[in-house]
Amino acid sequence: MAKNSAPARLRIVLGHLGRPAPRTIVAHPTSEPVSPHQQFQYTLNNNVLSLKQRKFYEENGFLVIKNLVSDADIQRFRDEFQRICKGEVKPMGLIIMKDVTIAKSEIVPGEKVISKIQDFQEDEELFRYCTLPEILKYVECFTGPNIMAVHTMLINKPPDTGKKTSRHPLHQDLHYFPFRPSNTIVCAWTAMEHIDRNNGCLVVLPGTHKGPLKQHDYPQWEGGVNIMYHGIQDYDRNNARVHLVMEKGDTVFFHPLLIHGSGRNKSQGFRKSISCHFASGNSHYIDVKGTGQENIEKELLKLVNKRHKIEDNITLKDLWSFRVRLVKGERLTL
User: How far apart are CA 275 and CA 185, in angstroms?
Assistant: First the structure.
C-alpha cells in the first residue's frame, strides 16, 4: 500500500476497532467579580470564572471546582465501565490497560485486572462526560468556543501490590500531544469517589505550567513502570507539592505543562477517576521529529502498528487526527 494511503487505512482500522511540605493553597477559590481591565495569559475573558479563580489558575496552573459532576452521572460512568470490564460492550478504538504487575497474569478479565481505559470517544455513554454542559462551561474558559475532545481516560488505580507500580511519575501531559498552542489545551479530571493520599490522589507542582516542556522518559523504578508512563527526568525537587484531596464529583482543570503525578494506592480498593483533555479547534499540529517528544511518538506508533497490523508509515498527526472529536463549535485546523 502506498505511503500516502496510510491515514486512510488508519481511519478504517480505527473505525473498527522525603519531600518538602505542601504549600498552603486553597485549590478552589471563592467567587469575586472579574475586572475587564485585568490581563491574563492562560484564561479567556467570559463571565464564568471569577477574578480570584482566574488569578489562581494564572499563578498555579490548576483550578478545582467542587461538586461539579452529579452522583447520577458518575454512577452511569461506573456502570458502563463495569460493562466494558465484563466484555458486555466493546467500544471501537478503546485501549484497555493493565498494571505491569498483572499484565501477564491469566486472571479472568474484570475490574480487578483493568487499571485504565483510554480513547473511549466511541463509547457514547462514557463520552457523555466530555459533553456535560457543566464541564464545557469551564473548558471554554481555556479553549474558547471551538472545543475538541482530544484524549479520554477512565483510571481505575489498583491497590498497590507492594512494588509501587500504582504510582504515576511526575510528568507534563503536553509530552504526549503533537499540537499547539499549549495555553488552549486543558484537562478536566473528575474524582469518581473520595480521593486522598491514601488511595493515590493527584499531586501537582503549582506554577510549573509557566516553564518549558521538559525531557521525559521511563523512570528507573525497581518495581517496574506501566507502559507509556513517562516521567520528567530533571525537575526542582525543592518545588513544594500540593496533594489534591477531592470528593466525588469534584473536578480539577489543569494546564498541559503543569507537572503532576500521583502516589501509590495504599488502600484495599480501586481509585476511580474520569478525564478528558480538550483543545481549541483552532489548534495546529507540529512535527515532533528531532524533539524531546520523538520517543513517545515512536512508542505510540509502534503500539498502534502492532495492535492494528498497520505496516505503512503513519505519523503522530495521523493518529491524533482520528482520535479527536468535536464537542462544541467548529472543527477548524485540529
Answer: 13
* pLDDT tens by residue, 158-205: 887 776 666 778 899 998 899 999 999 999 999 999 999 999 999 999
- Mention every residue, 6+ apart, whose C-beta is less than 8 A from residue 109: 85, 86, 87
Question: Alpha helix (H) ranges present in the chain?
Answer: 6-14, 51-60, 71-85, 124-131, 133-143, 294-308, 316-323
Distance CA 4, CA 13 (A): 16
Question: End-to-end alpha-carbon separation of the chain, Å?
Answer: 26
pTM of the entire predicted model = 0.83
Distance (Å, whole) CA 123 – CA 92: 8
Please enumerate in sequence order all residues whose Cβ is within 8 A of that of 103, keeping only pairs 6 or more positions apart, or say none.
none
The three grid cell numbers given for residue 137, joined into one nine-digit string: 462551561
Grid cell for residue 179: 499540537
What's the rounded Cα separation, in Å, for the pair 163 and 290? 34
Q: E-strand spans in the chain?
A: 62-65, 95-98, 114-118, 147-157, 168-171, 179-180, 185-191, 202-204, 216-217, 231-232, 242-243, 251-254, 260-262, 271-280, 284-285, 325-328
Cα Rg of the chain (Å, integer): 19
